[in-house]
Structure formats: structure tokens, C-alpha cells
Description:
With about 325 residues, chain B is α/β, with parallel strands linked by helices. Chain B is built from 13 helices and twelve strands.
Amino acid sequence: MITPxxxxxxxxxxxxxxxxxxxxxxxxxxxxxxRNRIGVASGVxxxxxxxxxxxxxxxxxxxxxxxxxxxxxxxxxxxxxxxHHILGTDDLGxxxxxxxxxxxxxxxxxxxxxxxVSLTIGAGVGLVAGYYGGLIDGLLMRFVDIIxxxxxxxxxxxxxxxxxPNTITLAxxxxxxxxxxIARLVRGEVLSxxxxxxxxxxxxxxxxxxxLILRHLLPNVLHVLIVFGSLYLGQVVLIEAALDFLGLGxxxxxxxxxxxxTNSETxxxxxxxxxxxxxxxxxxxxxxxxxxGNAIRDAFDPRLR
Amino acid sequence: MAAPLLELHxxxxxxxxxxxxxxxxxxxxxxxxxGETLGIVGESGSGKSVTALSVMxxxxxxxxxxxxxxxxxxxxxxxxxxxxxxxxxxxIAMIFQDPMTSLNPVFRTGWQVxxxxxxxxxxxxxxxxxxxxxxLNRVGIPAPEKRARDYPHQFSGGMRQRAMIxxxxxxxxxxxxxxxxTTALDVTIQAQILDLLRQVNREFGTATILITHxxxxxxxxxxxxxxxxxxxxxxxxxxxxxxAHPKHPYTWSLxxxxxxxxxxxxxxxxxxxxxPPDLINLPSGCAFHPRCSFKMxxxxxxxxxxxxxxxxxxxxxxxxxxxxxxxxx
Amino acid sequence: xxxxxLLRRVLATIPVVIGVTLITFLLMHVTAGSYIPGVDLNxxxxxxxxxxxxxxxxxxxxxxxxxxxxxxxITHGDFGRxxxxxxxxxxHIFDRLPATLELTVTAILIGILISIPLGITxxxxxxxxxxxxxxxxxxxxxxxxxxxxxxxxxxxxxxxxEAWGLPFxxxxxxxxxxxxxxxxxxxxxxxxxPATVLSFVYLSIWSRFTRSSMxxxxxxxxxxTARAKGMSERRVVYLHxxxxxxxxxxxxxxxxxxxxxxxxxxxxxxxxxxxxxxxxYERALQTDYTTVLGITTFAALLVVGGNLLAxxxxxxLDPRIRYA
Lengths: 305, 329, 324
């Protein structure tokens, strides 16, 4: 389910229109982003979930006065708006809302960690492959081809049964495949930037390879990374949820929005909300990530609408 | 003299953009008689292409906001889209600048060349292909039966343009509009294509409008020429006369800025000063006056009208209309 | 021309095949390398017997020879044996592959057949309310977890409809048990929900992609030429433009194949669809590493094969490739 997202890569910045004060590329992009209401709204939603993730114990203490693991077999399947249980309880009497709070930790944690690692590795490989070209490029991209040829979930499942993942290892497992698409994308960008005059000029001034890569290439591919990162965040949340749902991700003792849905169809008749809340939250999070990614892309290159 | 085949009366076409209204064609009038060759010359943005597209009603996203386009007496701007389609490709054909991109890459060339007769005259594929092959032959493409089965990318640039010309002629239209037909081609091929267009005009009697920014092309091909600037016609007349004694400062400057093999190289080339006009905010009065070395006081106030200056030419210039001769400085 | 192009594509897949088989081999060695199938079942085996079995199975040979055996085995369709019960992975795959193909191919077809009209509509009515609505649906569709969508559909169309006395869709399986699989209608009724769920995400992506491809094509010079020939706008769009716009879609579908097969696994589990994805899932729960790896290898090869197919289709559609 990691789709190589067919995103239109934003083009090189265009010079400021005549008559306007010259502003930096980033300033222009930030202004456009701020004016995009959907973009701002989705950014806020994402921020909201991040905050929930960071403060879940606090939120639990304030709003629900319980923790995600306390089992209460006398009060299973309470409907929403029951006393002390705003969103109801699950099959073991655990408070649903608290579990949702803590679930955010898993989703956001794995999401950002996997994206961060993937972007780093992917950008590194892409920059090197694109910059040096030739045999290095050939070998690296072949390797990427191989990794991307295998359906990702199959590999994730295999690694899950090998390693019995916790939050961090699951993120690393997902990142171990995810960097491939990014590497390809970055390499493509590098290839188009590399031949431009400023690169040749800087190189002829005697700049070292590393310096050229880090200080001149990287800033120009950064916008690609940011856009992809946001869209990829959504993908990671989806994959991680699917793995949890299958029972091959985070074990159910630690709540995650995905594993809260495992086997939930069996209690649909009497407690349909248990199927709705976690899935809906996943949907909203991914939607926000996608919209935010689109907004960033539009901010960097509005021509692509 | 017989009635003109095609007449434009004060045609105005505009583009409505976020930055403002672009007056691409700002009151163009012209006449074209059967079998004539007319050249329309101007720089990029002068409105020459949009004029042609407006005749074909292909000017979208622009809008024809005023004037008439009379073809055989009917006003094309008032026709329904269905009626207009009968005219396009059948009575008036248009060929475009870049043959590389103007032919559909996924269909065979013979099929594309034969499409107009299939569409307009209802012929079946075999018959249309036959006409296509014979037309490809007429335009000088060797081995036409084989070439008809080829795809556009298998043709060279010159051959492709010949195929485009063939495509325009299969329905024996009354008017052929060629929009920069040689601009994307090599110089040597350019000459061949112009020869072909001349030949076509003679053999088929098709009235031809040749749009270009290249004065040399016009000289070789067109009986009459119109010069456009900023969406307006600034001069028109027989090509020989206009080139010999231009009656508008713009034409005059254009002719002087071209290096000529038959002149002594005493002086540096004189490019036209200034920048092309902003079509959203045209200068007041004569659109050329900011760059004109002959300007008078009236030029910045009143828009000049196209009137007779000399025996055979029309020019929209207060200066020449008041009798001043354009001489070098 | 065409033959050379195809040959080049086939040759390009060889390093990928080698790479994939090498990785799965190494993983197999790491996880189950010295594990002898069936040893646990027979406590009477003496150490010498175990050694003999090892030698028989070739597990004492150097790694590169073992890999070559594995690779050669694959070319003969042998994807190893289960470490739980020694059964041939290939026979499992053989049993289950048709179901996965049925599901995946149907999903692709649904995806393409719906994306194209949606994409055309979005392009032709760019900026209109319909376009915005379609874009919104795309963005939404792309965000829905497939397994959740599957659950919800089952819960509504199977469970709830049955409770309300309406005709309801089956909640799983390929056919109704006991009918022998001959009834086409029965198969369709079982196929519709899983195929819809699987195609849903891709619909979103592909329709947006078709839209932008169409917009790009409509701005091309040859479209202007077509209009100048005096043909109806319908002909311009559906014959001249569309024919060009779908070509990149083929490439896109090819690129998405690994994701599609991944998605099929999840859908198979949710709908109890007896395909190779569900098989892998079942075997994974039993930590049957060798079967899991065998299926993974096969799935990767399937994807590679699918990509080749997409390349062939691409060459057929684009004469610039066919007659380079």
C-alpha cells in the first residue's frame, strides 16, 4: 500500500514579477501557504493530532480519569455518552476515548519517525546517485528497483514475525522500504538541477563534492522532500494501521487506531461505534496530511493546479 | 473587380486575463480575393495569429467582441458552432507553425491527411486514403503509398510540413491560412515549402494568407502584404511597393533593421528602439509612437486611421498622411 | 523496433529478478536456514540422521551453491517447502493464485473504466463545481483505510441488509460453499465488494492523473489542428485527445502494481478471499518463514511480469515506441 505517489514536482522558482519587491522563494511560498485556507486548516488538524499524541497522559488525566489498559469486565460495550465514558467502552471495558488519545501516540510517532528516516536515507541515496551518476547511480537505482518490486506489505509482515515490533521498530520496518520512492524522486530532481549553470560555476570554483551536494543541491530539492514527506505521512499512517489491524503490528495491549479495529466486526451489531471512531480518526488524519501536502505543493508552484 | 472572398471589418478579439483585458486584435479590416496571396507580417504579440484564429473561430479562450468576418457573404462570427465546423477544414483550411507537434503522434499520416474528406464529404476510408496518397504525391513526398502508412514521427520536419499542407488541401478549400509555416524549419527547407505554397496557389487557385514575422518570406511569396502592430494594421499594399517605399515608420524601421546582401556595409544595423507594447495598457494614440523617430505631437493623442498614402498603399500614420517622406537618419 | 524494445525491457528485469531472489534467499537462510522440516515431529532421529538429512537437502553446501539451487528451482516453479508441514509452496500458490488474479485484475479494470470518464469530466469542466467535487472525492478516497472501508461495506451490505431483510451481499469467500463455483452470478456477487474496495484508492489517484494528462493533451498543437479540420468537439476529445492521454496511465498502473498486490492482501484477509495474500497471512501467523518467503518471491516476480505486460501495452499504444 505504499503507492509511489505520482506527484507533480514543483518547478524551479520563477523570478519576482516586475514591480514587486524581490522576495525569497521561501517567503513567497510561505505567504501563498498562509493564504490557502484548506492548507492552513489541514495543518492545524495535523498539529492537533500531534499535540494529542504528545500529551495523551495529560489529556487522559483531565478528561477521562483512566488509563488505556484498565480492564473493567463489568462495564464492557458501554455506549457513547455513558457516565465517565464519553466515547463508550470496548470489549474489555477499557475506555475508548483514552485509548484513542494513546492511539495517537502510536500513529503520530510511527508516522513522523518513519517519514523522517525515509526522507533522510532516501534523500541521501538520491543525492549521491544523481550527483555521481554512472556506475554508482546504476547500482543504487537497481537496488531501489529491487526493493520496490516486492509488494511492501509482504515484507512488513515478514519482518513483523521476525522481530515482534514495538513502536520504534515498526517505524524502522516501514522506513526500510519507503526510502526507495524518495530516492528515485530526489535523484530525478538532482538530475535536472545538476546540469544547471550555477552548479557548473560553483564546481569550477573548486568546491568539493560534499559541499556541492549539501549546500547547493540539497536546498533545491528540499521542496520536493517537504511535499512528499507530508503525503507520505498519510501513507505511513494507513500502512501502520493496516498492519496493526492484521494483528501483525503493535500488540493490542498498547492501543493504536489500527489494532482497535482488529476483530471489531464481531461487535458491530451492538457497538457499531467501536468500528467507527478509530477508522474515522485514521481517515481524518490521513486526509489532513494529504491536503496539507497538496497545499504545500501549490504554495511552491501554483502553476500546477 | 469581383467581390472579395473573405472580408474582415473592424474585427476585435480580446483575452480576459487576471491581469487585465488583452486587446489582441484591435480593429482589423482586410479583403482577400479568390486566388490571391496575402502576407500578414508582425512581431510576436502583434495579433497576426489571433486574427487568423478568429477567422476560424478558434480563438478560445479569447472572445470576438466586435466586427465581422464575411466569407462568401456570410458573417462567420454569427454562425453556430455546427455551421462553423462545415467551413473549417473544408472551405477555409489552416496549417500551423510546428509540424513536429501539429500532427497527432498516434495516428498514421495518411489517415490524418484523409480525415477532412472523410469528415466533410463522407468518403469511406479507402477512398479518403486514395486522395491522401495522391495529395502527398502532389506536395512532393516520395513513395507516398508507403509514407501514408507511416507515423508523423517517422517524417523529417520538411516532409511533415508538406504533409500538413496536403492535409489542408484535400478538400480543395477556397482559402488556405498558413500560420508561420516555415518558422520551425531549416532555411533550405523553408525555400522548398514556400515554393510549394506558391505552386499550390497557382495550381489550385486557393487564396492564401501567409502569416509570418519574416519579411523575406513575404517577399518571396505574397502579392500583397499587411503589416500589423499591437493588434492593428499599420500598413498594407502590394508587396513590391511596401518594400520599396514603406509608408509607416514601423515598416520602414523593420526594413532597415534587416541586413541586406546588396547594400554597402557603411552603417551599423538599426534595431527598433524600445520594447514591444503591453497589450493590456496600450500607449495612447498611435501604439507605435513611443518608439517612432518621426513622431509628431498628434501621434500621442489620436489613433491613426488606415488611409491611402501614395498610389497603392494604405498606412495608419499621421506623419506620412501629412505628406512627410520617411528617410533615414 | 518492437522486438528490440521488448528485449531490452526483458533484459532489464533480470537484475531485479536476481536481486529479489537473492534477498529472499538470504532472509530464508537467516530465519530458517538450518531448520530441517519435520525434525521436531520425529523425536527418534539421531544426530547422524539429522546430518544425513542435511546433506540430502543440500544444506551443508556453500551458500552460493544453495542460492543457485534456489534460483534454478524458481525457474522450474519450485518456491521451496513449508517449514511447518513440508508442503510445496508452489502447490499452495497454484491453488490460490487464480483467486488473487481474479480480484486484482477486476480491481484494475474497475479502476481504469471509472477513472477515465471521471478524469475526462474533470478536465473538460475544469474549475467547475463538478471538477471540485471530483477532486474532493479523490482526495478523500485516497485517505480512507482500505481495511476499514471493507469492514464498513461488509457491515452495511452484508450484516445490516440481512438484518433488515434486504437482499444482501456475501461477506466473504469466492463462492457460496457447496455450489461448486459454476454459477457466474454467484461469483460476481462475491467479487463485487472486495474488488470495489481494492480499486477504490486507485480510482482516486488514477482519475486525477487522467484529468491532468487530458489537460496536458488538450493544450497540444495537434488538438488545435484537429479542431481546425472542422470536427466535432466530441471527436476531438474522445478520438484525438483521449488516445494520447491514456498512454501515461498505462505506465502509472504498471508502477502501482506492487502496491496493488499489497492492497490485495489486506482485502483478501478482510473478505476471507482465498488468494495468495491471505495464504501468506495465515502462514505468517504460524511463523512459517519459508512459505512466507516463497510467496513473497513469487509475488515479486508476478509484479515484474505485470510490469513487462504494461511495457508491452505501452509499446502497442504508442507508435513512437513501436517504430522508433
